[in-house]
Amino acid sequence: MARLSFFGHKDRYFDPDPGVRTLASELYQSVAALPLICPHGHVDPRVFADPDYNFGSPADLFIIPDHYVVRMLYSQGMSMSSLLPSRETGGVGGGPDHRAIWHTFADHFHLFRGTPTGMWIRDELRDIFEIEDKLSSANAQLIYDAVAEKLTQPAFRPRALYERFNIEVLTTTDAATDALEHHAAINASGWRGRILPTFRPDGVINIDAPNWRANIDSLSDVSGISITNCQSLITALQERRAFFKSMGATATDHAAVTPFTIELSESEADAILQRALRGEASANDARVFTGHMLMQMARMSCEDGLVMQLHPGSLRNHNQAVFERFGPDKGADIPTATEYTRNLLPLLNAFGNDPRFSLILFTLDETAYSRELAPLAGHYPAVKLGPPWWFFDSLNGMRRYFDLAMETAGIYNTTGFNDDTRAFCSIPARHDLWRRAACNWLAGLVVRGIMDEDDARDMAHEMAYGLAKRAYKL
Question: pTM of whole model > 0.85?
Answer without folding.
Answer: yes
